[in-house]
Task: structure prediction
Amino acid sequence: MQELTHYINGSHVKGQSGRFADIYNPATGEVQAKVPLASVAEMAMAVDVAADAQPGWAAVNPQRRARVLMKFVDLLNRDMDKLAEALSREHGKTFPDAKGDVQRGLEVVEYCIGAPQLLKGEFTDGAGPGIDIYSMRQALGVSAGITPFNFPAMIPMWMFAPAIACGNAFILKPSERDPSVPLMLAELFEEAGLPKGILQVVNGDKEAVDAILDHPTIQSIGFVGSTPIAEYIYGRGCSNGKRVQCFGGAKNHMIVMPDADMDQAADALVGAGYGAAGERCMAISVAVPVGDETADKLIEKLVPRIEKLKVGPYTAGDDVDYGPVVTSAAKEKILGLVQSGVDQGAELVVDGRGFSLQGYEDGFFVGPHLFDKVTPDMDIYKQEIFGPVLSTVRAQSYDEALKLAMDHEMGNGTAIFTRDGDTARDFASRVNVGMIGINVPIPVPLAYHTFGGWKKSAFGDLNQHGPDAFKFYTRTKTVTSRWPSGLKEGGEFHFKAMD
Ligand code: NAD
Result:
């Protein structure tokens, strides 16, 4: 059985705590490796290494730091297939999806190559006689990140690339379900020239997370995962005086207006609802057709498309639409919620409950499900299912559809499909959700914009990547200076001229 390690001070380090978690191959259900779960002492060791290494890295000028990031991008491209294969093997997502996971992380690294420009401060020349004011952005010191299982390459890179570009050292605590790619990323970054100790990976569970939350040297914490854990980390991290940003769960609605192109809307819903087995925080999990006629047309278009979906292991080739979910516990949770939908009176139009794949009977595959006539009081509407289950809630008007999206406690993403510019504009301007798609089902902003939800989908002031990341990973210092010669000459002249 393969035993994974931590990555501390430039070396693979065996776990010392004696505690391990199993890593499954979700396609076969077999345990393929075990990952060590760090103790408080192991985390403290990594923090000490980071604190020693960080001042040297912060002293490297931003352009030289950016060159290390450039080289890292080259290495990510060189090893793209290797990374995607390791990712699919632990996560279960298809090979093209796994490459997309690496690619969307890589794009943030590319953005961070602009660090010399993004870190420039501000300057006021002659704020008074001989007085100048300037502000600069300085690294925080040691930052940490806690990441979810569903994007094991992208989300770690969204955190550590800007943190490191700004001159911080970074400790990553990846998901214990698929930690191999994060370990590979740390090795690659060092191959690109990153000094030892600037990016370390400490594997673990709640004990390692609590050690991060309570360690006095750690200045900032980024978290992405489920909402209950996001709330916990935000509360404890803030009360310990750290800068914290936490991104939580989602329940993304897609409103389909009567004038929408129904084929386009159905294709979009199938991709956004079932891609990656629904294990995306930007997945669409609720379709809201406006009017019964729209709903009937939409369901008629959706059913054959959903029934055609090919579910299988990533090794079965590129025509597989989605793979298994991550663990048997995730599968049980999804099927339990499907049963609750049936029990609470929703209409199960496509029933994936009996799904089984020959040769992979022990894998964590879940067939696609489509519900119609879901109402807001049902558990399948209130809770994040994080599986291949799409719920249809019929609204009788645009206002009712808008109100549904607005009243839900989650506010990560939402979309509207319509040909009417007025309606689209009104929706984008009024809905209380962080990322909006207009005829775009998964509106994930590109690297140079920022990513983040509203309501219970995010806690903290700043978004991920884009310009916000450079604010999150730096502190502003403002200097007011006066030089005496300015008082004697330019200063006096300046005052005279003013009189
Ligand atoms: P999770 O909350 O179970 O785990 C996330 C991280 O928290 C992991 O590193 C895990 O080890 C740690 N953790 C788990 N339980 C903990 C506890 N009790 N105390 C301290 N730390 C703990 O999430 P997941 O299942 O890995 O990921 C799926 C969730 O992430 C979904 O809710 C999804 O919507 C969300 N997500 C959100 C975004 C976003 O940007 N908003 C992006 C991706 C995923």
User: Anything to note?
Assistant: The CA atoms of residues 352 and 496 lie 83 Å apart.
